[in-house]
Design a protein that fits this description.
With 168 residues, the protein is mainly β. Strands 1, 2, 3, 4, 5, 6, 7, 8, 9, 10 and 11 form an eleven-stranded mixed beta sheet that branches. Strand 3 and strand 4 form a beta hairpin. The protein has one domain. It has no helices and eleven strands.
C-alpha cells in the first residue's frame, strides 16, 4: 500500500488579485482610465471621472477606495505572462471587487494578523510597496487605514500573499 505524502510547509495561498469565496463576492465591471491604469492586480482602486485608476496620490483617502482590481477568470492576462505575474489591461474593462475576499501581496515588513487593520499605500512607492498596495502597519504619512470592515484573514504565505476581507 503506498504511503501518503505530507506537506512539510504551507501550500502557496494564491496570486495577487485572485478572488476567493466567490459565493459572497460582489463584483462590478468598470472602465479603465487608459491615461492612468492600474499596473498590477490586487491593488486598491478609485474612480476618477467614472473610470478606474489606482490609488496613487498622497491626498487619496479611504473614502475614495472603491474596491480591489481582480485578476480575470478563467483567463490569466494576455497569455504570454508567466504564471502569477499577469499584467492588467491598460484600457477597456476590468473587474472590481466591491465586497468579498481577495488575495493580495503584502507590502512592508509588518506581518499580517487575523483581523488586523488593512493599510493602503498612497505615496512614496518602493520595491514591494506599490501605490494602492496593502500593508499591515501604518507609516503615518504614506499609508491610509481602511475601515474596520476591511481586515486581514490571516498571515501571508512564504511568497507574501495574504487574503483580505473587503467590506465584510
Amino acid at each position: 500500500m503506498p504511503s501518503l505524502q505530507a506537506y512539510q510547509f504551507r501550500m502557496p495561498a494564491g496570486f495577487a488579485g485572485d478572488l476567493q469565496r466567490a459565493e459572497v463576492a460582489t463584483i462590478e465591471t468598470q472602465l479603465i482610465d487608459s491615461a492612468t491604469p492600474p499596473t498590477v492586480f490586487g491593488v486598491a482602486v478609485k474612480y476618477v471621472s467614472g473610470k478606474v485608476q489606482p490609488i496613487n496620490l498622497s491626498g487619496d483617502t479611504a473614502a475614495l477606495v472603491q474596491g480591489v482590481n481582480l485578476r480575470p477568470y478563467p483567463i490569466q492576462g494576455n497569455g504570454t505572462d508567466p504564471l502569477g505575474t499577469s499584467t492588467p489591461p491598460t484600457s477597456g474593462v476590468t473587474d472590481i471587487l466591491k465586497r468579498g475576499y481577495v488575495m493580495v501581496s503584502l507590502g512592508g515588513v509588518a506581518a499580517a494578523t487575523k483581523g488586523g487593520t488593512v493599510y493602503v499605500r498612497v505615496a512614496t512607492p518602493s520595491a514591494g510597496k506599490p501605490l494602492g498596495g496593502f500593508e499591515a502597519a501604518s507609516d503615518t504619512t504614506n499609508t491610509i487605514a481602511m475601515p474596520s470592515n476591511w481586515y486581514f484573514t490571516g498571515p501571508a504565505d512564504a511568497y507574501g500573499i495574504t487574503e483580505i476581507a473587503v467590506n465584510i
